[in-house]
Amino acid sequence: MSEKPKDREIFFEFIRIDENMRVCAVDSVTGIEIITIVPSKMPESEAQKLALKKLLWRLEREDMGAEEGSDVPHHPPGKYV
């Protein structure tokens, strides 16, 4: 998964917290969410690219875990606490 898959949407949320910005990226198909913190001076386009790269890495890791039967937990879509 080196690029955004065509059959899914990625949702982004940007929240400024003092000198930082919290960037959340959510995959519409799996519901997997990542959060990254970047400096607030970073352009949103760069922060979005970084979050997307991290989300794609996470999705790839989930796929590898499901294929190999490793210790990576596979969760159905939804929110977990």
Describe the model:
- The chain has 81 residues and is of the alpha+beta class.
- The chain has one helix spanning 44-68; strands at residues 10-17, 20-27, 33-39.
- It has one domain.
- It is built from 1 helix and 3 strands.
- The chain has a 3-stranded antiparallel beta sheet with strand order 1-2-3, with helices on one face.
- The chain is elongated and about 40 Å long.
Q: How are the SSEs ordered, and which strands pair?
A:
Blueprint: E1 10-17, E2 20-27, E3 33-39, H1 44-68
Antiparallel strand pairs: 1-2, 2-3
Write a compact overview of the structure shown.
This protein has 1 helix and 3 strands; from the N terminus they run βββα. The protein is α+β, with helices and mostly antiparallel strands and 81 residues long. Strands 1-2-3 form a 3-stranded antiparallel β-sheet, with helices on one face.
Q: Going across the major beta sheet, what is the strand order?
A: 1-2-3
Straight-line distance between termini: 27 Å
Helices, by number, come to 1
- Major β-sheet profile: 3 strands, antiparallel
Please state the CA-atom Rg, rounded to the nearest Å. 14 Å
Overall mean pLDDT score? 83
The SSE order reads: EEEH
